[in-house]
């Protein structure tokens, strides 16, 4: 009798507690560009509808919110009839800087992900994944023929999740999206931010999870779709008579909690 109760009630209860505890064990300290993460989760190398570019070098670790976001996005992409997608850099297991050979300023806390504009169709070989032939949507000052309905929809679907705070793309891609979706609901475009580079991939950023009190959020982007003056300013020549004031970059410090977390892995 005692044995039966043990198997029927107590063991499942303990297992359930462990699973629930693990699901919320991840914790973030610091900001997107200076921080770390405890108990990040490895995002799967592949599924029927995605392939990961970075599982070979350990840059596929994410906060569980990011894992959910990507799984939801993959499901949305499939439901919309778009081809399977590639997932690029997320974070290292303990977070922190991605290393000297990386040109990323962020990706420190498992809440940033790069999604290339190359679809995983045809399916890529391991060699192709390591040396991906990127598709550029911008060449010099124009959009290329690769700025297609499918890629515009991929960006729209990526932005259509409450957890997303920003998606960085080249200013010309943002302009292309503003025109493409003219006359339609463009509220999601407020999250799509013009930024240097980002011609061959988009960079998605999620908000800090509520159960990570030491995670430092970025200010919210301005309201509106950002298709007006703000976007135009990216294409204006610099005014040599009135140079822009130099912005003093805040020197962020690595949170003390990160010392042991970053040394552990
Ligand atoms: Zn990035």
From TrEMBL:
Disulfide bonds join 36-258, 178-227, 208-215. The gene is mepA. Pfam families: Peptidase_M74. GO terms for biological process: proteolysis. Residues 1-25 form the signal peptide. Keywords: Disulfide bond, Hydrolase, Metal-binding, Metalloprotease, Periplasm, Protease, Signal, Zinc. It comes from the Bacteria. GO terms for molecular function: metal ion binding; metallopeptidase activity; serine-type endopeptidase activity. GO terms for cellular component: outer membrane-bounded periplasmic space. This is Peptidoglycan amidase MepA. InterPro entries: Peptidase_M74, Zn_M74/Hedgehog-like.
